[in-house]
Every structure is written in structure tokens, then in C-alpha cells.
Amino acid sequence: MKKASAKALCFTRVYLENWRNFTQAEVALQRRVFLIGPNASGKSNLLDVFRFLHDIVSVGGGFQDAVRKRGGVSKLRCLAARRNPDVAIRVGMGTEEEPLVWEYELRFTQDNRQRPLVQTERVLKLGAEIISRPDAKDSSDPERLTQTYLEQVYANQEFREVADFFSSVRYLHIVPQLVREPDRSVGKNNDPFGGDFLEQVARTSEKTQAARLRRIVDALRVAVPQLQALELWRDMRGTPHLRGKYEHWRAQGAWQTEEQFSDGTLRLMGLLWAMLDGTGPLLLEEPELSLHPEVVRYIPQMFARIQRRSGRQVLVSTHST
Predict the structure, then answer these.
(1) What is the per-residue DSSP string for 225-291?
(2) Taking Cα atoms as reference points, which of 221, 219, 181 lies closest to residue 197?
(3) Which of 112, 184, 206, 281 has its CA 20 to 30 A from that of 90?
């Protein structure tokens, strides 16, 4: 029986021109990627490429909104761009069996009203071109170039798999203080900063929830060997809490809730849960925050333990080597 990761789609390469601080860059990607470098080296900017593609296809989003959220084309465009002012993104997607199933390319600039404008949009499947823009319809109606085919349901039928894949991308940078906040989940859904993390755990069926928490305990054992168990419980208001049983001088151990977990431990719990909760690429920022250096070196091992189960692609930005 093949592993889940063998057939799961993932990003296999990315090519950029004039994207933020990258004049030109091309990177091959594996199922587990660690982006290592000092501040302002472009780690977050590289992750933002995948967030940008997600924002284009997200409900209520779109090409115009994705660019606007980032301050417009002039903010996205590399300051070193001179002769060719276009911003270009090209990503390859594939599986372990077929590394390059799909290719998506988007090249854009802005018009004299500072609106983002598609210059090129191409989709290839197994090397065969599915769409290429501008096309004849774009030539007769240039206003069409303010939108991508990617975001349009009626236009992306032949490559809907690509749109769905981009939609499955998730960014996560858990802030432990938000997880502990009593009214943390009000108005939040899939909060990238973890505000609704415990509500996500609570919404999961009991059987799946228990299995995932056991796997998280197993993965954390290399970093938190005293942790024996994790479970969800609700207080008198019905608010969900996560509590862990720690090895203790008492025979039955001692229980702690998320209010007592260290910031680093709570952040790792949230990240490991996210790796088990979904199939699309997961973008993680600085998972080593608040962790002791001796624990940080075990992060790849923890992620590998979880990833063997989920097969989910993980792209991590970090300062740690």
C-alpha cells in the first residue's frame, strides 16, 4: 500500500521574478522544506508567494484583492526591477510518482490607474498547455485582464485541481497568548495566529481527536519527555481547553492546561495539530520561538514523525540551523 504522500499533490518548484526582494530566483522544493537565514533575507517573502496564490482563489478574495492586501504592485515589485517591471510567479506541482504534473504561471503589472493587470497566465498539465493568456477574448476586452482565470469557476474547469490545491494552502504562526485568551475564537475561522486552535480541536470527532492527540504526545516526547497524555475538556461555560498529564512525583501524575503550558510547548502543539488537520501545504513561521536550543534541534524529528502519517507538505521559515 502506497503512503499518503506518494499521491498527494505538493509544490515541487517555484520561479520568481521581481517578487519583493527577489530579482530572480528558482527553488526546487521537497515535501519538507526549511528556509534558513537571517532577518530580511526573504524567508517570509518566499512563503508569501504561496499565500498569495491561496488568496487569489479564496472565497471573497481574488487577484485584485490579493495584490491590494500587499500594498499594490509597486509594493510587491522588487526595488531592483528596471528594464522588465513585471512581477512573475511560476510554480510546479506534482507527486512523488510524477514530480511535475501541473505548472501555473502568472505575470502581472499595473495599469495607469494602478490596478493589477495580468500580462501572462499559463497552465500546463504534463507539459501540455491548457490555457495561455492574453487570448482572443482578452484582446477584444482588455478589462478581462484585471482577473485571472484561476479565480473564475467558469474559466478554471480544466485546471480546477490547481485552484483547489492553492485553496488548501494554510499559513500558521501561532501566538500562545491568543490561544489562552478567553474570547479567543470570536469571529475567527482558521485564524493563522491560533485564535481558534482549541475550537478546531473541539470540532473534531472524539475518535479522530483522541488519535491525533496521541500522535502529538508521541511526537513531542523527544522534546517534552514528561508529557504522558493530552485531552480536551470543557469548563462550566462550555469553553474548550487542552490539558496535559505530566509525569510527577505523585503516582497519578499532574495535569496542566494551556494556561500553564510554556509558550514554546503550546506553539508546538498547535503546529503539530495543524500538520494532522488537512492535506494541503502548510506554511509555518519560526516554530522555534520560546524553545530551548536543545529542544529546537528536535523540531525536524517531531515534524517527520507527524508527516509520516499525514503526508502533508510543510514549508518552514526559521533562524535556527
Answers:
(1) TTEEEEEEEE-TT--EEEEEEE--SSTT-EEEETTTS-HHHHHHHHHHHHHHS-SS-EEEE-TTTT-
(2) 181
(3) 112
Residue type, 197: F
**In terms of residues, how long is the chain?**
321
May I ask the CATH architecture of the domain 4-167? 3-Layer(aba) Sandwich (3.40)
CA nearest neighbour of 303 among 25, 6, 34, 83: 34
Sheet holding 227-234, edge to edge: 227-234, 240-246, 254-257
How confident is the model over 127-185, as pLDDT tens digits? 999 999 999 999 999 999 999 999 999 999 999 999 999 999 999 988 889 888 867 66
Residue among 278, 279, 284, 281 nearest 302 (CA) = 284
**C-alpha cell read off for 35:** 528556509
Cell reading at 264? 514554546
Place of cell 501566538: 175
Cell of residue 235, nine digits: 469548563
Domain boundaries, the chain: 4-167, 170-279
* Residue 33 scores a pLDDT above 50: yes
Are residues 63 and 118 in contact, defined by beta-carbon separation less than 8 angstroms?
A: yes
Nearest to 275 by CA among 299, 307, 242, 316: 307
pTM of the model: 0.89
